[in-house]
Amino acid sequence: MPEIPLTEHTLTVAALSEAELLARIFPRLEMGGTHGSATLLGPGDDAALVSAPDGRTLISIDTQTQDQDFRLEWNNGYRTTGYDVGWKAAAQNLSDINAMGGVAMSLVVSLTLPPETPVSWVADLADGLTAGISELGALDCSVAGGDLGRGREISVTVAVLGSLAGGEAVLRSGARAGDVVALAGTVGRAAAGFALLESENAVQSLAPAQRALVELQCRPRPPLSAGPLAMAAGATAMLDISDGLVRDGTRLALASGIVLDLDPAALKPLSEGLTPASDLLGADPMAWVLGGGEDHGLLATFPADVQLPAGFTAIGSVQAPESSTPPGVTIAGHAVGTGGWDHFAD
């Protein structure tokens, strides 16, 4: 019986040495032949060399693990590509720097792979990383280096370095009574996409609007211009919405010792665009708005006399806590459960 020739789609990482696999990855990380201005020395040495423009550096780290943060094949038949995982790894880390009011400078990536992983999947991951960086608008950022190892499941850990460009970091703890609560980006759409992925509705049968929600779960689009604009406008507090509007809002409220009171009339338009999924699944779109994570929008507070920067919409106000309303999130003055995602409880 003749041997089946190995191609990029049948070749696995077990068939290559580490050096051979890296030789296929490195060229895909060069962002069109150049690295971001902050990366002075990229992959190839024991450590990367990056600049710290104003002497301070923001740093954050996130991990995606197979069957915990993504599935290679979802219940509805969608197959997660390396491109999806690479894009999402970039998006969620870039969003953390954005939430501090900064701009991303460099990423380093630790990649753990089972030996049966197709080489093409790894190449797609590298392409997804660089596409996410460039298409989301992190123009000064690139992949500076990383680590490669063998394991029982795919795990992708990305650490990101960022700069405040001379400004002051926007923390979760600065909100004050009288501030306006504002949102940049979307909420609920990635959660709707997740529900479609986990449903019995075959991916091939989904309408374009439903497929778009699936794509926002697999390839989120954080509003990266919004963070620096919020810092420049005088935002008093801010955070990335990764685990849900109410859950993350509660984190900001507890850090600041205040109550975030959300306006039902302002929340209602946030569910627009979710009906293609909610009608199909018989779900309440407002549950996704309040509890759905992974859109990676920004929740921020601003002094009442500040004009909200481009991309932000007012959705509530900051109130002083009272004995009947301790720090947390309310809607029209009524307490609401946190909902959202918990890595250890869910």
Helix content: 25-40%
The number of strands is 13
SSE topology string: HEEEHEHEEEHHHEHEHHHEEEE
By helix and strand content, what is the structural category? alpha+beta
Please report the number of helical segments: 10
In the sheet with the most strands, the strands line up as 8-10-7-11-9-12-13
**Stretches with pLDDT under 50, minimum 5 residues:** 1-6
Structure, described:
This protein is α+β, with helices and mostly antiparallel strands and 346 residues long. It is built from ten helices and 13 strands. It has helices spanning 18-25, 82-98, 119-135, 189-197, 208-218, 226-233, 245-256, 264-267, 275-281, 285-291, and strands spanning 39-41, 49-50, 58-65, 103-113, 142-150, 155-163, 180-184, 237-241, 259-262, 297-302, 312-319, 328-331, 334-335. The chain has a seven-stranded mixed beta sheet, sandwiched between helices. Strand 1 (39-41) and strand 2 (49-50) form a beta hairpin. Helix 2 runs parallel beside helix 3 (119-135) and helix 4 packs across helix 5. The longest helix has 17 residues, at 82-98. The relative contact order is 0.16.
What would you say about this model in short?
The chain is α+β, with helices and mostly antiparallel strands and 346 residues long.
